[in-house]
Amino acid sequence: MAIPWDSIRSLLIFFGPILLPKAISYYRSVKASSQARHAPIVPVPPKVRVALALLAFLIISYILKTLPPFAPENLFLATQSRLQIPVDVLFNRVAVGRPDNVLTKQDEALRGRFVNLESRLLYLQFGPEVLANCPFCTSEEPKTFFYYALPQLLWPHIANLFAIAFVTSPTFTGRAGSQWRPKATMAAMTITALDIYFVNSYNYQANARALRLSEVDFFYWTARVARLVTLAAFDAALGWLLYLSATNRAFVEPPSPVERIEATSRALLTVKSKLSALGIVKNTALRDEDLRSRSHAYWSHEVRLMGEVMEEREVVEGVNDALTNRIDVATITRDAEGYAQNVLHSLRGETAEDDSI
What we know:
- It is built from 15 helices and no strands.
- It is mainly alpha-helical.
- The protein folds into four domains: 37-246, no CATH class; 255-287; 288-317; 327-357.
- The radius of gyration is 38 Å and the shape is elongated.
- Keywords: Membrane, Transmembrane, Transmembrane helix.
- The chain crosses the membrane at residues 6-27, 48-64.
C-alpha cells in the first residue's frame, strides 16, 4: 500500500522542527570534537577535487533532467485531454504537434495500447517508453509492466552507486572518503528500495475516478522528478561530508592503533636502513686507504681550525661569559653523567646476559 504524499508532508512538518535542531547540534559537536584533536585545516587534496567534480557533474545532470525539455512527453498534458477521451481524438491532437502532422513510431505503439482505460492508467504509472516498447506486457497482467520497467528504474541508482564507490574508494580519496563508504552505500540502497516500493505499491486505479485533467495524478513524472532530486540531494550531502572530512573541518578520525603501529614500524625501519647505510659508508671509508687518509686529513684540519678559533680573544671571552652567567654547568654535567650511566648500565646488562649464556 502506497504512502500518500500528504502523509509524508505531514510527517515532515511534524518531525522536521524536532530533527533539524538535533542534526545541527550533532554537526556542531562533531566539528568541535574535530577541532579538539588539533587537526589543522588543509586544502582539498587533488584526488578529492576530482571526486567532488564528479559529484557536481552528477548533481547538475540530475537537476537538468528534471526540467521539462528533458522529461518524457505527457500526451494528456500536451494535448490538454482527459483520460476518457476517444483514442482517435487524442492522437489527432497529438499529430497536430508533430512534424508534417505524422505520428512517430512511439505514438503508433501507444495508440495501439490505448484501447481501454486500464492501459491509460498504467501509462500514468510507468510512462510512455514502458507502455510503448514492452513486447510481453498486457493490461490484464499489470505486474508485467513493472517487471519491464524495473531495469529502467534501477539504472540511475546503479550508476549513482558506482559513483559512490569511486568517490569513497580508499585508494582514491583515502580515509576522508573511505569512512563514508558503508554509510553512503546503505543510504543509496535504502533510497533504491524505497523507490522500488513506491512504484510497485502505487494505486494506479485511483486515477480512474478523475474526470478532469487537474484531478489526475501523473505519478510517473512526479516520481521521476522526486527520484532525480533525491539523488542530487544525496550526492550533494555526500560531497559536503567528503569536503569537510578531507579538509579536517569536521569528522576527523584519528588513526587506529594498528595504523599507528604500522607507521611507527615504517619510521623505525627507515631509521634502521639509514643507520645501516651510514655504517656501510663508515666501514668502507676505514677500509679504503685513500678514503681513510682523506678522513684523517679532514679531521686534522677540523681540529686545527677549531683550535685556532677557540684561541681567539673574542671567542674566549664569549665562552667565559656563557659559562659564568648563562649556563648552569653543574646541571649540564649532572645530566650528561646520568645519560652516560644509563647507557653504560644497559651495556653492562647485555654483557652480563652474554656471560651467563
